[in-house]
Write a structure and sequence with these properties.
By secondary structure, the chain is α+β, with helices and mostly antiparallel strands. The chain is built from 13 helices and twelve strands. It has a five-stranded antiparallel sheet, sandwiched between helices. Strands 7-9-10-12-11 form a five-stranded mixed sheet. Strand 11 and strand 12 form a beta hairpin. Helix 12 runs antiparallel to helix 13. The structure holds adenosine-5'-diphosphate.
């Protein structure tokens, strides 16, 4: 249940219409028990008053004539009014929203408007869900004489941004999955319909390559989804930095040779480093894979490892096609692809570097890219040599 609804339920169901009087009169009852140990009914007016004033949720209380009897600081800053000047004013004078006024009228008529009304606050850059509830006289449901209305404003900016990111992610994912699937289907149908061996020899390897691409995409998507859900928890171990890097570089030797690209490993000195071996390996896999994909035959990809007291540093430098200056700040964004047409046959789906960044940041490290179009690209990744906690 959203915060606004929970607070409204507490306010309306437990304390009912009495709240309106409490906020205007301000009680002074003395209580020495800690708040958490008291039954709700004995929470004092002062404490409740203080609680509502401190809430990050905007709270405005109105009397039967829609005049403001109480507003907390959050409400004042959301709608841009001074609390002292708001008292006694009609809500529309203070918050000029016709829709809000309708909701208040409904609330005064006994109807809650739980559906959020999105308004952009005074600062213009945050969005709030506004709900209005009737305030009744008496704690029991049967005493339902409406004596005023309660308006709650809840900041929804982050929630909406997350929702937008989720929608974007889903639509990108379905696009990325549908494209290779349709082409695999088309190729298999062609093979199926043709008795010709040449057709089979032409299309089956292509279909298989697409299946490989799809499998790699699904793997990256799962990684991405895990990272997005904040579930990128690391299994730290202490390892020799070059012992982590060496086998990964070796696993690309054949691919590099097949492409005519020289793959080199240069380790200055060895050092121990605390990392999640599997995850960090993935950083290296993605960086070397990109380096090889975007470097023409005759070029090179060089991996270097170094360490100082504090940091383990990994560099992957290629002599490939480079990244245009205007694209460089965006390459770590999810699904960001630099002009597909420039490397159509090797271009991926723009997930690799986003995953790399999330893994490096989960290690409390940083990753940067420098590039010169036509000359090559250098990625520098630094992670602290020691985990933030003891490894036991
Ligand atoms: P992709 O799987 O599409 O390569 P990435 O997230 O790994 O996605 O990379 C994002 C974009 O950055 C790519 O579209 C590519 O154009 C560019 N890029 C990444 N690494 C390199 C590189 N080593 N050389 C040139 N361009 C690169």
């Amino acid at each position: 249940m959203p915060l606004a609804e929970s607070v409204a339920l507490v306010a309306v169901a437990l304390l009912g219409g009495a709240l309106a009087g409490f906020f205007i009169r301000r009680g002074n009852a003395e209580v020495s028990e800690p708040l958490a140990q008291q039954p709700v009914a004995t929470i004092t007016v002062d404490r409740f008053d203080r609680l509502v004033r401190a809430l990050p949720l905007g709270v405005i209380m109105l009397d039967r004539d829609s005049r403001i009897t109480f507003a907390n600081r959050a409400a004042a800053s959301i709608f841009g009014f001074a609390v002292e000047r708001a008292f006694g004013h009609h809500v529309i004078e203070v918050v000029p929203s016709i829709e809000l006024e309708h909701r208040v009228t409904d609330a005064l008529g006994g109807e809650s408007s739980m559906g959020p009304l999105i308004v952009t606050g005074k600062a213009g850059n945050r969005t709030y869900a506004i709900s209005a509830y009737p305030l009744t006289d008496g704690a029991k449901e049967s005493d339902d004489v409406t004596i005023g209305a309660l308006v709650l404003a809840e900041d929804q900016t982050e929630l909406l941004a997350m929702e937008r990111a989720r929608q974007e992610f889903l639509s990108n994912v379905s696009h990325e999955l549908r494209t290779p699937l349709s082409s695999i289907k088309l190729m298999l149908e062609t093979v199926n319909d043709s008795p010709d061996d040449e057709v089979r020899d032409l299309f089956l390897p292509q279909a298989l390559a697409q299946v490989d691409r799809l499998a790699s995409l699904v793997r990256k998507l799962l990684e991405e989804a895990r990272a997005m859900g904040g579930r990128l928890s690391l299994k730290y171990e202490r390892a020799s930095f070059s012992a982590v890097v060496k086998p990964i570089v070796a696993s690309f030797e054949q691919a590099a040779a097949g492409k005519g690209v020289e793959l080199r490993l240069q380790s200055a000195t060895d050092a121990t480093v605390d990392l999640d071996r599997d995850r960090f390996s993935q950083v290296l896999v993605n960086l070397i894979d990109n380096g090889l994909r975007y470097t023409q035959p005759g070029g090179s990809v060089t991996v270097t490892t170094e360490a100082d007291e504090q940091w383990a540093i990994l560099r992957v430098v290629d002599t490939g096609i480079g990244i245009p200056y205007r694209d460089l700040p965006h390459i770590f964004e999810r699904f960001y692809v630099v002009d597909r047409s420039r490397a159509r046959e090797v271009s991926g789906e723009g997930l690799g570097l986003s995953i790399v960044k999330q893994i490096v940041e989960a290690h409390h490290g940083t990753i940067t890219a420098e590039s010169l179009l036509g000359s090559g690209t250098k990625f520098t990744c630094r992670i602290p040599r020691r985990a933030p906690h003891d490894l036991t």
